[in-house]
Amino acid sequence: MEIRRNPTRAVRIGRVTIGAGERVAVQSMTATHTQDVEATVAQVEALHQAGADVVRIAVDSQKDAEALAQIRARTEANLSVDLQENYRLAEFVAPHVDKVRYNPGHLYHHERQKPWQDKVRFLVDVAAQHDCAIRVGVNCGSVDPAVAEKFGSEDSISPMLASAFEHCALLDSLGFTRYCVSLKDSDPKKVIEVNRRFADERPDVPLHLGVTEAGMPPDGVIKSRIAFEQLLSRGIGDTLRVSLTVPNSRKPEEIEVGRQILADIALGRVRSVVDYGLSTLNIISCPSCSRVENEAFVELAAQVKEMTRYAADHAITIAVMGCRVNGPGETDDADLGLWCGPNHVNLKRGGEPLGAFPYDEILPKLKYELDSLIARRTTAVAQ
Ligand code: SF4
What residue ranges of the chain have pLDDT lower than 70? Predict the structure, then answer.
């Protein structure tokens, strides 16, 4: 099947170029603790051997940055780094990677008095100095609050777009065009809409596609496939990541699944679109990364899926997140949200915190909340 790709500009990431009609690059991210150099190198290499074009690593501290230098020395993989709140770490990590990803929604945490534009200028200078590309990674769960407050709470797409557009405009005005953009959500329909709208206005900017917190296979694969089919078949997307909640040893599946989806689309083997979230239970869970503080998280995600099977016919969303960094924000849109700490799992009903519970107590608590929610909805329908 001949797919006419959007006329995006070329962006080089190490030895890989995305955009400008190049083959769609497939990426993944490590889920080991970055300071565990042995484990992280092993996972980077496993992903590299599986065909990853770029491997991303999270860096949250100076010690992570020091570990990154050792990891760089031991792998040929193209490396990207995921910066969270401390944007100034960029100057320590950029010498060791090929791309720096920043989230516009996290720039305000440090040096609050400093305008975000100055922080982006700093990132651009560092990237240019060290031959790095940049990804502007906009995420539904952490949109810049200053942008979000300009829109109604029911509209999650427009703030993401506004944030992406203003960062593109600044990067362009600085003469830095070696960047791509990602606009991620856990709902494949929103991923489709936000990326289509972005590409309508900025067909020149390469897009990194992904459904965040897609969950475990097979659901996580299906959600990613739905979004990617709709976008790639319209020529939108230059690189992608399939985010799956799987144990560390199975992380290369993210690459295999990504390549399989691309091969199927190229052959026109496109599946029908599943109507997500309208009438069935929707479990979303993050793919895990180095920020996970208790590896029981992956097993917990599987147990939640198993335990909640009886509620399959209810339009309820349950989010299970691996850490305390992004968990609180990423569960905001769920009916019931869980996020994991070292010893406890936090539980939330809509926006209301319900407390933190030991790992061996969380499932009964969740079941109680799920049953109560179903009962309330059943009563409301009957009235
Ligand atoms: S929710 Fe936390 S652990 Fe999960 S992928 Fe996001 S940052 Fe990593």
Answer: 1-2, 270-278
